[in-house]
């Protein structure tokens, strides 16, 4: 494009330029203030929000089929619409995860009359196929795991271990170390829609709340190191209280409409 020979740029008015600049500065200041105010409001709301954190959903296409202590086959998806907890145990090494197993027993006793609450213990070292039903039945009877409330269940090791790692979000695959089974001993809490849930603990000084996993071995290690909870309770006792409180919250919730 060729400009005319007599073309001259429009004269600049310094006062108009300064006014425009101040208007832009004002817009930026006001906009920044509004953003900061909105962020502070959101932070305050999040800091006070104690609703259980939702971080993964077990879907039907990723479900686990198991054999239970009654010898019957069932799907974990059958528990959809219920609130349930799940942990892992070893029949060969029952001392591994025993702390969480004791918590499971207390939950079974507390919620024995609650039809909407179930427990599942997954055996990471399944016995030979021909012995599975009898072994599970004997172990369940010895440990007080009674149907329909409490499932003692398993599957073939590769399928089961994959589910534990990918769907229960365990920190590692179950495996053996020097002949002893090692696995994530945390208790996993699952809501009526199949979401994994964790407790949310507001911080007294503000800021993002603490999201707690139900890892009772970790809580016990904190107690051993003298870590304080800020309450009269030990870390183990505080975590048990958090778990029960979170279960009660989920039992009171109703599934979202489809």
In words, what does this structure look like?
- The structure is a single chain.
- The protein is α+β, with helices and mostly antiparallel strands and 258 residues long.
- The protein has a domain at 53-198: 3-Layer(aba) Sandwich (Glutaredoxin).
- 38% of the residues lie in helices and 19% in strands.
- The strands form 2 sheets. Strands 1, 2, 3, 4, 5, 6, 9, 10 and 11 form a 9-stranded mixed beta sheet that branches.
- Strand 7 and strand 8 (180-182) form a beta hairpin.
- The longest helix is centred in the first third of the chain and has 35 residues, at 14-48.
- The chain is elongated and about 95 Å long.
Spell the H/E element sequence. Answer: HEEEEHEHEHEEEEEHH
* Uncertain spans: 35-49
- Share in helix: 25-40%
Mean pLDDT rating: 85
Strand content: 15-25%
Rg estimate, integer Å? 28 Å
- Assigned CATH superfamily of the domain at 53-198: Glutaredoxin
Largest sheet: 9 strands, mixed
What is the name of the CATH class of the domain at 53-198? Alpha Beta
Q: Using DSSP, what is the number of strands? A: 11
Give me the secondary-structure category.
alpha+beta
Oligomeric form of this entry? single chain
How far do the termini sit from each other? 60 Å
CATH fold name of the domain at 53-198, please? Glutaredoxin
Shape assignment: elongated
CATH architecture of the domain at 53-198: 3-Layer(aba) Sandwich
Secondary structure tally, helices: 6
Write a concise synopsis of the structure shown.
With 258 residues, this protein is of the alpha+beta class. Helices cover 38% and strands 19% of the residues.
């Amino acid at each position: 494009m060729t400009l005319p020979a007599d073309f001259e740029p429009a004269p600049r008015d310094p006062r108009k330029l300064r006014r425009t600049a101040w208007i832009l500065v004002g817009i930026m200041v006001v906009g920044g203030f509004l953003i900061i105010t909105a962020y502070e409001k959101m932070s305050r709301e999040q800091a006070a929000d104690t609703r259980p954190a939702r971080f993964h959903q077990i879907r039907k296409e990723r479900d686990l089929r198991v054999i239970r202590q009654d010898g019957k086959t069932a799907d974990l998806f059958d528990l959809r619409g219920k609130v349930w907890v799940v942990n892992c145990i070893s029949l060969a090494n029952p001392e591994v995860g025993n702390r969480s197993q004791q918590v499971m027993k207390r939950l079974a006793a507390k919620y024995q009359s609650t039809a909407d609450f179930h427990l599942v213990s997954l055996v990471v070292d399944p016995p030979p196929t021909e012995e599975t039903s009898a072994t599970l039945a004997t172990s369940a009877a010895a440990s007080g795991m009674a149907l329909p409330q409490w499932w003692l269940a398993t599957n073939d090791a590769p399928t089961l271990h994959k589910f534990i790692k990918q769907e229960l979000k365990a920190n590692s695959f179950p495996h053996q170390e020097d002949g002893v089974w090692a696995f994530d001993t945390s208790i996993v809490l699952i809501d009526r829609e199949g979401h994994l849930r964790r407790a949310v603990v507001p911080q007294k000084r503000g800021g993002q709340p603490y999201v707690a996993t139900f890892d009772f071995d970790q809580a016990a290690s904190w107690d051993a190191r003298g870590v304080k909870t800020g309450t009269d309770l030990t870390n183990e006792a505080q975590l048990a209280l958090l778990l029960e409180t979170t279960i009660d919250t989920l039992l009171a919730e109703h599934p979202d409409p489809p």
